[in-house]
Amino acid sequence: MLRPVMRAAGIGAIVMLVYGTAEAIHFRQFCAKHLAWIRAEQNPSAVVLDGGFAVARQGDSLFTCVIDHCFGVAGCHADLSCYCAPATMTPTGLAELLNARSCAVDHIVPSPGDDTGACRHAHCDEHVGP
């Protein structure tokens, strides 16, 4: 009875090691929000987000925010994301709320037809606020 249990535990440990390694590689090489930050560092007019499911609601503005993203022993890197938040919110207030390095207004009144700025077509990664 002990042998099957030890075998199952060993297989579980191997699976967790492989999964953790895959996640660390993804974090280091393929994190979309970090790649957006790299693009924006190289070219300040680069697009951060131009598609997705979340769109600005009535009364929202679009903000870009730089947030530190950490993954255990793999370390930390900067992520750049688009956020939909109430138009009454300031970039500083949003940065404090998200614990971000910084935030900036991308569109005060976003529209689905807008193809300018870093956050295109009123898309955002996340809604903040009511």
Summarize the structure in short:
Helices cover 37% and strands 23% of the residues.
Describe the protein's architecture and organization.
The chain is α+β, with helices and mostly antiparallel strands and 130 residues long. It has two domains: 30 residues; 96 residues, no CATH class. The protein contains three helices and four strands, in the order ααββαββ. A four-stranded mixed β-sheet has the order 3-1-2-4. β1 and β2 form a beta hairpin.
Q: What class do helices, strands and sheet pairing give?
A: alpha+beta
Give start-end ranges of low-pLDDT stretches.
Answer: none
**How large is the count of helical segments?**
3
Number of domains: 2
Helix content: 25-40%
Average pLDDT taken over every residue: 94
Beta-strand portion reads 15-25%
**How large is the radius of gyration?**
19 Å
Distance between the termini: 55 Å
Rough outline: elongated
Number of strands: 4
This entry's quaternary arrangement is single chain
Order of helices and strands: HHEEHEE
- How can the largest sheet be summarized? 4 strands, mixed
Strand adjacency order, main sheet: 3-1-2-4
List keywords for this structure.
single chain, 130 residues, alpha+beta, four-stranded mixed β-sheet, 3 helices, 4 strands, 37% helix, 23% strand, elongated
Task: Itemize the secondary structure elements and their pairings.
Blueprint: H1 2-30, H2 32-42, E1 60-70, E2 76-86, H3 91-98, E3 102-107, E4 126-127
Parallel strand pairs: 2-4
Antiparallel strand pairs: 1-2, 1-3
